């Protein structure tokens, strides 16, 4: 999807994951995952991010965790939802358009940097539609046993090409290009 000549960064699915493939524990609890990333062990990833497109469920979990003082650390935040809230939230733009338009809107707002996608369902939809350039995974040293899986069960096969891995303490970052 990305083209160096058009001035747009990549569309990146970015997520932390337990070794057994969960991005959140039971009840969407992300506390045990977030504690590993609190000291920002990979600042270069944050520096590459110009905007975020977030699923509504992920946004609601982030709000509950941070008691409405959440900080996504990645530029403008767009939340794709069929149910925009009645009251606006500072720093958040709610979109109720189709998926391709939402990706294009957030990507344009990234100012030439990468646009990150957060949320298992949203990421699976984007992957199915061929809208993703890269998958970046923080593999954390834990087994959760249950919770929210990395992708939805209806994702289907997506072929990836590994191109980088980095270690910082106990965390490993794996990066893959999405084969088109």
| Whole-number tally of structural domains | 1
User: Which fold name is given in CATH as the topology?
Assistant: Dihydrofolate Reductase, subunit A
| Computed Rg | 15 Å
Element pattern in H and E: EEHHEHEEHEHEEEE
Measured distance between first and last alpha carbons: 9 Å
CATH class: Alpha Beta
Largest sheet: 8 strands, mixed
Give the integer mean of the pLDDT values. Answer: 87
- The amount of beta strand, in percent, is 25-35%
Identify the CATH homologous superfamily: Dihydrofolate Reductase, subunit A
User: Per CATH, which architecture?
Assistant: 3-Layer(aba) Sandwich
Counted beta strands: 10
Number of helices: 5
Low-confidence stretches are 1-5
Strand order of the largest sheet: 5-4-3-6-1-7-10-9
Overview of the structural elements:
The chain has 180 residues and is of the alpha/beta class. The chain has a single domain (4-178), classed as Dihydrofolate Reductase, subunit A (3-Layer(aba) Sandwich). It is 24% helix and 32% strand. It contains 5 helices and 10 strands, in the order ββααβαββαβαββββ. The chain has helices at 31-37, 43-48, 56-66, 99-109, 120-128; strands spanning 11-18, 22-24, 49-55, 77-80, 92-95, 114-118, 134-140, 148-149, 160-168, 171-178. Mean pLDDT is 87; it is low at 1-5.
Keywords for this entry:
180 residues; alpha/beta; Dihydrofolate Reductase, subunit A; 8-stranded mixed sheet; two-stranded antiparallel sheet; 10 strands; 32% strand; globular
